[in-house]
Amino acid sequence: MHIETFPVGPLGCNCSIVLDPQSKDAIVVDPGGDFDDIQRRLQKAGAKVVAIVHTHTHIDHVGATAPLQEWSGAPAKIHEADRFLYDMLPVQAALVGTDQPETCDLEGSLVDDHVLSAGALSMHVLHTPGHTPGSCCFVAKLGSSQIAFAGDTLFRRSIGRTDLWGGDSELLLKSIKKRLYSLDESIQVITGHGPSTTIGEERRANPFVRLK
Ligand SMILES: [Zn+2]
Ligand SMILES: [Zn+2]
Fold first, then answer.
1. Phi-psi region of 97 (alpha: psi -120 to 50; beta: other; left: phi over 0)
2. Cα(164) to centroid of ligand 2, in Å?
3. How far does the centroid of ligand 1 lie from the alpha carbon of residue 192, in Å?
4. Given this model, what pLDDT does residue 210 score?
5. What is the pTM of this model?
6. Which one of the ligands is nearest to 131 CA?
């Protein structure tokens, strides 16, 4: 599995290209900004985008979705419970102090426990509400390698904020404990911002949510 993760946009959202090296089919996770950079990396990898997925629908994670969708023709997917956030992008833009990005049609087709595929790689959808009502984490798998994408649900030694629209701290803790901490502890976790971590490290050392 070929994974390329890089920060995009003014808030440094981690965008990832997840690619099956054999077929070159790829899934893009959280194209939050800097479309030109994302496009250049996809072209360099010879990637064929088959899906665009979002860990949630905050503006810093969907800022370049429309141009990427238009260029690649791939379906752009969110969890339906986050649609209201896309409908209020102007409000989000005002809060962050940026211009309102171009918008496109989003499929509300990310459903808990569904599996997306790109060539030989699979991507398991985990609905993990808390940071937003439609927050999702993804676990990509190819052969014996696995990697998780946690969005703004779990960070290295931290957790996502819950003071924005539809945030719920109790639900967030429940999502992390039930859905993320139950994964194999060796799995690397790409977070929504900043450095990556592993499930085991956070289970042991995350000061906000630990299993006793
Ligand atoms: Zn967020
Ligand atoms: Zn974010």
1. left
2. 11
3. 8
4. 79
5. 0.97
6. 1
